[in-house]
Amino acid sequence: MIRSRFQRSAVMLGASSLVLAMAATGIATGSANASTSVPGVTSSSVTIGATVPLSGIASSYAEVSAAALAVFKYINKKGGVNGRTINFIRLDDCYNLASQAGLGCTQPSSTTTLSQTQTLVDSDHVFATVGSLGTAAQDSVLNFLKQNKVPQLFVNSGSSDWNQASKYPDLFGFQTSYKVEGKIFGTYINAHFKGQKVGFVGQDDDFGSNGYIGLTEGKLGTDAVSVASNDKFLYSPANALFEIGDITPAVTKMKNDGVKVVVLDSIPAVTARVLADAHAIGFAPQWVISTVGSDPISVNTSLESGAISTDGLPATSDTSNVWNVWLKKVLLADSTDFPHFTSGTTLDGNEQYGAAYAVAFAEALYSLGKNGVTQAGIVKAMTTTKFATPTILPLSFSATNHQGLLGGVIASIPTGNPPTTITESSHTVYTTTDAANTAVATSSKYTVSAIPGWLS
User: Fold this and answer.
1) What number of CA atoms fall less than 13 Å from residue 31's CA on the CB side?
2) 140, 137, 293: which is closest to 208 by C-alpha?
3) Predicted local confidence at residue 271, as pLDDT
4) Directed axis angle between helix 178-192 and helix 206-217, to 10°?
């Protein structure tokens, strides 16, 4: 279920009410940079921000940043990080598509990711952007943030654009790249569906293009997955809700061609539409869906049952995982952004994702101590911190790798009406890199980090 969100993480109140509200939540009442030369940092707070789609075609991702906000609220109630609370400002950028009429955006058509990022930097004086979302959206602000020396951390996208350590040293991704995920899919398909025809539906940007490259690269190019040109379909992210209605001829072509496996590099709304259009013509291949568009609560259809995906986080069905248990406690404590979340509510992948990067940021900040909070310091901490997060394999940041996760496990969507969880039939971890001709390695080691005492 997609819950409505505020367009900003704090509602503007009258002066006296604002002071009381901020004191109650542990958010500092002083100006973000009133007592220090470091933007966004005071003796009692750190202000960070993100541009995310809170409305429009990608609004199903709104709860990612909401879950991050819930984690920061939880940390603030425990006294913050080394005595500083985290003030997290979210601005709606509509996936950088506000000017596209009819896509459900509630922002003025002039709103862009750049304009909202400029507000965060010039008006809110953020210390860093943390968890901003979207490839095209975040590509549009790379140079602005670099020129203003504002770290751009944990970008919510699997683009390889975030792994440019020499050109953008203050830029870091988070999730497994689209190309790495594609390689994992290719390896899995070669092992389990060898010789069967494969089709592909992807977003017409680096999400789809990089995923396709990884998929068809296979194991060092040997027995690579092959997709006939007529069984490959790309949709424009700017026209997703319209153009995708024309996908029926594409899935019909794949059906007639005898395609048995279809890989989707699509956002949840498009995933649901493809599944529905295929079902309408009696086309039922094995669906293999990118983690970007496979979250069952966001897709919200029984037609996703049996689909295969990847996961870099614990299975949402794993009620014994310590991080899942902890996250439920965090979300239950946030009745503002998660008013309908109860002890019986099932976690979804969006909530896990938001919590994971929020925890990672808090740990990097924690490593700086009380007196070392600088923008240069947080960038260094990204490559030196030994992160303990909900992710099932370690964050692998280094001086030369700013991607973050380098793999995941194969996951599946169980039967449901509709399904609400993701399960992992095996704890085998697949890892590789974006580099051409890099093999996919497998390991049975499944890492579950302990929750740090200061965080628990």
Assistant:
1) 9
2) 293
3) 93
4) 40
419 closest CA partner among 272, 207, 238 = 272
Q: What is the pTM of this model?
A: 0.88
3-state SS of the chain: helix, strand, coil percent to 5? 35, 15, 50
Q: Are residues 156 and 187 in the same domain?
A: no
Residue 107: both structure tokens together:
């922002």
Domain shared by 171 and 183, yes or no: no
Q: Name the 3-class secondary structure at 443.
A: strand
Q: Are 411 and 310 in contact (CB under 8 A)?
A: yes
Question: Bigger pLDDT: 425 or 431?
Answer: 431
Helical packing angle, 248-256 and 268-280, nearest 10° = 60
Query: Quick check: helix, strand or coil at residue 192?
Result: helix
Q: Quick: pLDDT tens for 178-199.
A: 999 999 999 999 999 988 999 9
DSSP 8-state code for residue 230: G
Q: How many CB atoms lie within 10 A of CB 316?
A: 24
Question: DSSP state, 368?
Answer: T
Tell me how many domains the chain contains.
Answer: 2
What are phi and psi for residue 410, nearest 5 degrees? Answer: -80, 130
Rounded Cα distance between 12 and 106, Å, is 18
- Residues 376, 291 share a domain: no
